[in-house]
Amino acid sequence: MTVAQMLAHCAEIQEVANGKTLTGTPVIVRLFAPLIRRMVLSDKPYPRGTRTHPQYVQAEERNFEKEMLRLLAALDSFIDAGPRASRHPIFGHMSAPERGWSCFKHLDHHLTQFGV
Known about the structure:
single chain, 5% strand
């Protein structure tokens, strides 16, 4: 994954956290949703090479500047909405602290991956 692809991946996940529709969720993901949720909300870092939802895969080349602005806009929307609970399309109800932690943990995972 390139840096631009990582930014697109993070932007897509943040947009879903902001309310964008998530489509094409494999049945196996739905079956293991409680286990995945625990991994997402735990203090342990994500294991390297963890598979991602098909909607989040970024196989095409991306423009760094465009994807950086997209991610920043999605983060601004998340912040502007303020702390609130919401319903995640896979994990169900998430409290404001759970939403915040999951977004932080995911961004930290990828920024650390790229040495930022």
